[in-house]
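Good morning C.,

I know you're traveling, so I'll keep this short. The sequence:
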Amino acid sequence: MAKLANTEPPFSAYSLGFVFGPRINAGGRVGRCDLGARLLATDRADEAETLAVELDRHNRERQTLEAGILESAHALASLQCEDPFLLLAGDGWHAGVVGIIAGRLKDRHARPALVAGFADSSPQAIARGSARSVAGVDIGAILRAALDRRILETGGGHAMAAGFSIRRDRFADLADFLRERIEPKRAIVAAASELLCDGLVSPSGSTLDLLADLDRAGPFGAGNPEPVFVMCDMLVAYAEVVGTSHVRLRLVGRDGGAISAIAFRAAGSELGKALTKSRGARLKRAGKLKRDDYGGAPRVQLHLEDAALATA
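The tokens, ready to paste straight into the viewer:
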């Protein structure tokens, strides 16, 4: 699997979470759910190779499905500006990727996001959906309460992630119920858009040795968030869209030190639009420091989460 993913040891928590994890999980999303378990359990090289190839194919299929649905979901989300949550559904949206879509929307819009896919366009269709929430809004409890009200066919989960199924004719009722439960928490939802930073760093100080020290504090995740750093007064040497939705930049500090940066899946967002117009401007940047091995020698890259004018 590492060979197929073009990644080499030493493997990190990032490798497990973002390189191997999605491939192992892809069988359960769009293929057969036993493939990942069989790969991890086998001691036969030929079987492992066959399973890894199949999982890699399913992962690419998952990525294609996700990209198509995400474009439609972003368009629908832009129409839901008033509520402190997002509730979206589409005919034919694959149930195996709606959880990923909900997570993407939650991250971009800093609101609880519920995404469901109807198997067909019939009035009797039942949708399978997933929800992702922000701190302070227990989406699992909310969906269990909606199930008790018989709005949902099934529903439950934990505070930050949950699943549900619903008939088409109860979808509007679910929206009303979410307003009832989440509207009183609007201030809590608003706080989710605040970006808390842990320190200042310069391009010259963003070294591989610093990354090694930071890694000793990991693995990062719920309860142990990855540090976010601010770089002040950075000149944008260039900014461009790469791939289909990422924005890549080159930043130069006052001391002449430079660092590459990237804002993933930002091209269509307010941040992405601002970044692509920022060449020659001086900005403050906030993000996470990552190791970048692409193209040969390892280096440090800034994964951007936000930006502001240097004078702000």
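Safe travels,
E.
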